[in-house]
Write a structure and sequence with these properties.
The structure holds two protein chains of two kinds. Chain A is built from 24 helices and 28 strands. By secondary structure, chain A is α/β, with parallel strands linked by helices. Chain B contains eight helices and three strands; from the N terminus they run H-H-H-H-H-E-H-H-H-E-E. In chain B, strands 2-3 form a two-stranded antiparallel sheet. About 15% of the residues of chain B have low confidence. Classes of the chains: A alpha/beta, B mainly alpha.
Chain lengths: ~725, ~230
């Protein structure tokens, strides 16, 4: 919604005249600064530190939960560029745009630099000693039940320290919260396969049917899956893999699919059961109890409920029958409904009857050391905490690296409930919505300045422990790592136990070396093993492989969402590869890289199907109001054929009230989500919000990279086009 | 009308700003000398690198090779400034000058572990990439010139200076003037005088007179320096 009187013609004029002016007056003009610029030498330099020559260090990326191993280029003590570490089984030397932007998190001008006391709008810098003393004072005389600690997904030694700290204060209230989590998928997988996260092998499948799993964009471990995908496309036995994507809102993966099917929101489970029934009819042998369960899902009914044509169902069945093994994935589409667990269970059942379990759905390798395993964040834990806060149960709340005030629906009143907690401490990089509510804000090191270990939830190869090490000195002298803060708090409670560790680094090093033999370093001395660990940036550990259960679990029948004439549309919050849940919004590269599907930059938009838009009289650029039962947001309309006509989509991750690159750009759809929860897991049903659309009467020019014609060929034959309906994939490829 | 005023204000402003910037920029002086630069410590290059005086060792120099301190020049495109550690390494053992104000300053910085804020004497525009390493490799290691001679091509007679001062213009024309001196190269691109390795990028045209020996014109690819 950027408005300006400066149009294209003026811009070109200024550019032309400005260029001439520079050419005329710029002769002889240089940037030479003899005698003005300072040149500072090292005080002490190691042999490898040569000005102008860069050195590389391996570390672990913390921009998302995939935990790719990274390789940072450092010159003159400054980290310049990140690449992937080729040794890692997760990303094999590759990296995504989100990870690349990690340097902008590190060098961000809005990072917090001093511990601060907040009181309303007033803020006051305090020393670390005073801050830690204040925390210890506030913990005095408070029982364990009145202390809560909120984090995101956490693993490794910082998790162990956190556990010890919670034990030392006698509290069991650690809540791991992620607004966008795969908790529903994990719970359903546990029931279907006996493990929370099996290994998915796209590269062994000849057909992949993905129900909303954006594995090339933002699902689980996108860099890893992108590489599997390229092998899958090269094919097994000379057969190029076929990808069918079924979703209500097109994702990056959907745009890459051979066939993209729009499905009525929330009916993915119905389609999965319908496919099982149709596969049975086409000759696939089904277990008797499954056959009985899916009998009711005949093609006509399924087609009516899901909006997927019978012809498409037939083609899909033919494809799955002729090409085995296949792989069926359940992603962020089907799991975001009140019946999310049932949807995922039905999709998993499809994998089982197709015989994919053990072939393309493989047993995961889990790392030893249970105390270091990831505690996966989910949204249900926040709501549990929120209830406690509403009751006034908590006197002290710690929040670390998570922003629930931004990412929880407004109707849950997290911001108000936080106020009921007596003393709030936020460990934060920025003064974000949650940190603004805190009484004490502690500035964290960036991930390129801090030590850490990470065991990611999705281990695609051998079990890895990712080592995070500082790539450069701290930019700001007064920031600390979360591990250091926890250690300092522990020292004031259990001085004897922790006195040997000067800082978190010392703790980490001692803890790793203590298990040297188990970590495969038995033959080396301590120093040698530690050096090897740091230079590799990861430790491979002999993991144990869990067995998958192949017994079919018959899913209960998913219930379709009830129609509501007042709110006729379903809001599907878009999870974009760039911005995800919005914690990265203050990294300008991510704001300015065009959304892969709409090419829009620096703003939010409302995706509407062109048919629906015509019905409502909406054109591209119209400012429309998206109204749910609990709130409304306004954004520019973008007509997009890649969305189901009964749904609209607004991307997540924008609409912050802080940060020079985030504030004022776009809106936050988290705020208007209906408080609907998945019945089995208690997770927020992200896609189950009913909305209506109202035109506001204003219209803007949508800022996007895509051509003015919206990708149309304007009558010229540039590329031959055929609709996917005209192609029978089972014969074509 | 309103639009016209706004537009012309913008353009006039743009011209003035650029003119002002251009006028302020230092131009090379007639004698090619750079400005005299005041340094935090008046470093006596002559004492370190100057000619040894056997009759009165306390007056003359010590003939230390440039590369003994400026070690980065042969290993990197940037010559850099020696780390403080290097100065202290020797001066720790030179008791006779420890009470001199400059050396006191040096040890103060060392004890505080604070780097010295030297002023840059030789600066090139940001769009020029000069590589020290290549020049040292060629003139010192391949052709056996002494460091003082090779470094002196561009930096002047530093052994007779206290703090360094720019002696040459370091303009593009000045660089090219050296590169254009008779560098004999075969038309095939094979070097004759163990020189002019840049011809692998673009072969020079053969002259009709001496088909195998031609006068090199310096690196004729802009990208060599402007990358």
């Amino acid at each position: 919604m950027i408005e300006s009187g400066f149009d294209r013609r003026d811009f070109l004029k200024v550019l032309g005249w400005g260029g001439t002016a520079v050419a005329l007056s710029g002769c002889g003009n240089t940037s030479v600064q003899d005698g003005k610029e300072t040149v500072v030498s090292y005080v002490e330099a190691s042999d490898y530190m040569i000005p102008g020559v860069s050195v590389r260090f391996n570390s672990t990326c913390t921009q998302c939960e995939a935990g790719c191993s990274i390789n940072g280029r450092v010159r003159e003590g400054r980290v310049l560029k990140l690449e992937g570490n080729p040794d890692s089984d997760i990303n094999r030397g590759k990296m995504c745009g989100l990870g690349q932007a990690g340097v902008q998190h590190h060098y961000n001008p809005d990072r917090l630099k001093e511990p601060m006391l907040l009181n309303g709008d007033q803020s006051q810098s305090v020393s670390w000693e005073a801050a830690l003393k204040l925390i210890n004072d506030k913990l005095q005389g408070v029982s364990g039940d009145q202390i809560a600690f909120l984090t995101g997904t956490v693993s490794g030694h910082v998790k162990a320290l956190l556990g010890n700290f919670m034990e030392s204060v006698g509290s069991k209230h650690h809540f791991a919260y992620e607004a966008l989590s795969s908790a529903v998928l994990r719970a359903a997988n546990k029931k279907s396969y006996g493990v929370e996260m099996p290994r998915y092998s796209l590269d062994k499948a000849k057909v992949v049917v993905s129900f909303g799993a954006d594995f090339l964009g933002a699902w689980v471990s996108p860099v890893h899956f992108s590489q599997q995908y390229s092998r899958f496309r090269k094919g097994v036995d000379g057969q190029r893999g076929v990808l069918v994507q079924i979703e209500s809102k097109m994702t990056l993966t959907g745009a890459n699919a051979d066939r993209w099917l729009a499905i009525r929101p929330g009916t993915e489970g119905v389609l999965a059961l319908g496919l099982i029934n149709a596969l049975g009819a086409a000759g696939l042998s089904l277990p008797a109890e499954v056959a009985a369960e899916v009998k009711a899902y005949d093609k006509a009914r399924v087609s009516k409920e899901t909006g997927v044509a019978v012809g498409h169902i037939d083609k899909l069945v033919a494809l799955l029958r002729t090409r085995t093994p296949s792989l069926v994935l359940a992603g962020n589409g089907p799991d975001g409904f009140a019946q999310g667990s049932e949807n995922v269970a039905a999709i998993n059942l499809l994998n089982q009857v197709l015989g994919n379990v053990g072939k393309t759905v493989e047993a995961p390798v889990s790392a030893p050391f249970a105390q270091l395993q990831a505690t996966n964040g989910d949204s249900a834990s926040l709501y549990k905490l929120n209830e406690g806060m509403a009751r006034g149960q908590y006197k002290v709340l710690f929040a670390c690296g998570t922003n629930p005030v931004f990412s929880a629906p407004a109707s849950l009143k997290v911001a108000e409930n936080i106020k009921r907690v007596g003393f709030k401490v936020a460990f934060a990089h920025y003064l974000d919505e949650t940190a603004q509510q805190a009484d004490l804000v502690l500035p964290l090191d960036s991930s390129l300045e801090d030590w850490g270990t990470h065991i990611v939830a999705y281990q695609p190869g051998e079990a890895h422990i990712g080592i995070q090490q500082p790539l450069m000195e701290k930019l700001h002298a007064n920031t600390r790592g979360a591990g250091d803060i926890l250690l300092a708090l522990l020292k004031s409670r259990r001085a004897e136990e922790y006195k040997a560790f000067e800082d978190y680094y010392a703790y980490l090093r001692a803890a790793v070396l203590q298990n040297k033999a188990a970590l495969g370093g038995g033959a080396l001395d301590d120093e040698g093993f530690w050096e090897q660990t740091l230079s590799k940036g990861l430790i491979r550990v002999a993991g144990s492989s869990a067995a998958l259960s192949t017994s079919t679990v018959v899913a209960a029948v998913p219930v379709a969402t009830a129609e509501n004439p007042d709110y006729p549309l379903t809001l599907i919050p878009g999870i974009t590869p760039n911005l995800r849940d919005g914690r990265y919004a203050n990294q300008p590269w991510l704001q300015e890289s065009p959304d892969p599907l709409t090419t829009i930059v620096w703003d939010s938009w409302v995706e509407i199907h062109p048919k629906k838009a015509a019905e409502l009289g909406i054109a591209e650029g119209d400012i429309v109001e998206v109204i749910s039962r609990t709130g409304s947001i306004k954004a520019q309309a973008y007509l997009f054929p890649g969305i189901h006509p009964e749904a609209v989509s607004v991307p997540l991750g924008r609409g912050q009230n802080w940060g020079r690159y985030a504030k004022g750009f776009g809106v936050n759809p988290f705020q208007i989500l209906d408080p609907v929860f998945d019945k089995q897991t208690g997770e927020l049903a992200l896609n189950d919000t009913r909305v209506k659309i109202k035109k506001s009467g204003k219209r803007v020019i949508v800022i996007k990279d895509e051509g003015a014609a919206g990708g149309k060929q304007m009558g010229k034959k540039i590329a031959v086009r055929a609709s996917t309906d005209e192609v029978d994939l089972s014969k074509e490829v | 009308m309103y639009r016209f005023i706004r537009f012309s204000t913008l353009l006039v402003g743009l011209f003035i700003a650029i003119q002002g910037y251009a006028a302020e920029a230092p131009l090379t002086t007639a004698d090619d000398l750079g400005p005299a630069v005041e340094q935090p410590i008046e470093f006596p290059h002559n004492r370190h690198a100057g000619k040894h005086d056997p009759s009165d060792p306390s007056k003359g120099g010590m003939e230390i090779d440039c590369q003994y301190c400026h070690t980065y020049a042969r290993r990197s495109s940037i010559a850099g400034i020696p780390p403080l550690q290097k100065c202290v390494g020797c001066h720790n053992n030179i008791e006779s000058v420890k009470d001199k104000p400059r050396i006191k300053k040096l040890f103060e910085a060392w004890e505080a572990k604070k780097p010295i804020q030297w002023k840059k004497v030789h600066d090139l525009p940001d769009f020029v990439r000069f590589n020290h390493e290549r020049h040292i490799k060629r003139f010192v290691e391949q052709q056996g010139h002494t460091s003082q001679e090779a470094c002196g091509y561009c930096h002047g007679d530093v052994k007779n200076m206290t703090v360094a001062r720019r002696q040459k213009s370091l303009s593009m024309g000045w660089c090219a003037s050296c590169h254009e001196k008779a560098h004999t190269v075969a038309a095939s691109g094979v070097d004759v005088g163990k020189q002019a390795y840049w011809y692998t990028f673009q072969k020079p045209a053969t002259t009709a007179k001496v088909p195998e020996d031609i006068k090199a014109k310096g690196p004729n690819d802009c990208w060599q320096c402007h990358k």
